[in-house]
Amino acid sequence: MKKWAYYLMAAGCCILLSLFMTSCEENCDCVQPEEEANEYHLFYPGAGTGVTRDTVLIYSTLTGQVVDTIWYEHYLYDMEFTSDGTLMVLFGDNFRGGNLIWVEDYITHDTLADFEPPEFSRIELNFQNTELLVTAPDTLLVLAFPSLEEIFAANLSYVKAGFLPGTRRLYYTKSDIDSIFEIDYSNTDSAAHKAVYLNHPFISGGRKPVDVRIDYANGKIILNCVTRYDYSQIQIRDAFDFSFISEAYGYSLYFNCSGIRPGTDEIYFISTAFGTAPDVTLSRVDIFNSSMNIMTPFMDYNDIIINDRFVPNEIAFTPDGRQIYLLLGTGFTPASVLGFQGNSKKIVQLLKPHQAGAPFIRINPRIVN
């Protein structure tokens, strides 16, 4: 056969192969594999023994194995990491019937500063990692970070509070008042207050906010409000002037906004049945997309086949948003942690610590590998 015939046959084969691959790509219904996940450290605190009052197990999010253990002489109630993962702020007891907040170096575990809050508190770092908010039953405190020196204090009873975008702005809500309040403490001697009524004029029924999340990336406030009809209404407002943007209704009654998945507009909500023998059919995780204003079901007990009861009570995300972890359990038994891929929901880990149930889980944003 002449040389030109070979070239002609080869060209024909290439054309046919190209047509076949194009057709396959257009009609393929397969799931594309997710990118290889980064490795982070997941913190699981639980009760210790003897002089050790709290034992923190550190898991690799890549392998699911325990890579380190930290022992504390405090019961831990809460903790947060700085955005680079080099420091952590912890909240626990102080052995004298009171409480203690302290800043710790993540690598050396040296204590850099400590502070005794007046009562049992909730802690939150601001977006810039320069201030720490301490919310106690009768007091709001803002402390400099990491020195923990007091900057601002306000006498407010039983509120939920957090930082707003911008400079020295706080919000707070009360479960019995259908409003959100702002405190501008840029002048700490004369802080400015304002309130915004949450009832949208086209909707009937009270709006009692039970939890709030701030979407710093998009400048939005996400309010989880419980109506007088005992269902959740999700309300989105501008984080700078509190103006109304949109709202949607949940599939259930959510008692918190569990978290915003990094790199997305997805806010995750958990509805859970508690008790020694909870009804798992009432437990579910739903997603609200704040840009599309759509609430969609994400996961319930029918989606997960594991021996543990599907009773989620907290959610954590890896900073790249690729993996999601659910803390399962009722607090009466060791709590398992279910890890799965964010897009496909494929289970990648089921962590089963042999110690008392954790009050929370946290993921250090520092990449290990």
The strand order across the widest sheet is 3-2-1-28
| Radius of gyration, taken over Cα atoms and rounded to an integer in Å | 24 Å
DSSP helical segment count: 1
Q: Report the β-strand fraction as a percent range.
A: 35-45%
Count the beta strands.
Answer: 28
- Amount of helix: under 10%
Compute the separation of the termini in Å: 57 Å
Based on Cα principal axes, name the global outline.
globular
- Report low-confidence residues grouped into runs of 5 or more: 1-33
Query: Please, what is the average pLDDT?
Result: 79
Order of helices and strands: HEEEEEEEEEEEEEEEEEEEEEEEEEEEE
Give a short account of the largest sheet.
Answer: 4 strands, antiparallel
In terms of structural class, how would the helical and strand content be classed? Answer: mainly beta
List the helices and strands and how they pair.
Layout: H1 3-27, E1 41-47, E2 54-60, E3 66-72, E4 76-81, E5 87-93, E6 99-105, E7 111-115, E8 122-125, E9 131-136, E10 139-144, E11 150-154, E12 160-163, E13 169-173, E14 179-184, E15 192-197, E16 208-215, E17 220-226, E18 232-238, E19 244-249, E20 257-260, E21 266-271, E22 284-289, E23 294-300, E24 312-317, E25 323-328, E26 337-341, E27 347-351, E28 362-364
Antiparallel strand pairs: 1-2, 1-28, 2-3, 4-5, 5-6, 6-7, 8-9, 9-10, 10-11, 12-13, 13-14, 14-15, 16-17, 17-18, 18-19, 20-21, 21-22, 22-23, 24-25, 25-26, 26-27
Provide an overview of this structure.
There is one protein chain. By secondary structure, this protein is mainly β. It has one helix spanning 3-27; strands at residues 41-47, 54-60, 66-72, 76-81, 87-93, 99-105, 111-115, 122-125, 131-136, 139-144, 150-154, 160-163, 169-173, 179-184, 192-197, 208-215, 220-226, 232-238, 244-249, 257-260, 266-271, 284-289, 294-300, 312-317, 323-328, 337-341, 347-351, 362-364. A four-stranded antiparallel beta sheet has the order 3-2-1-28, with no helix packed on it. Strands 4-5-6-7 form a four-stranded antiparallel beta sheet, with no helix packed on it. A hairpin with a 2-residue loop joins β9 (131-136) and β10. It is globular. 30% of the residues are buried.
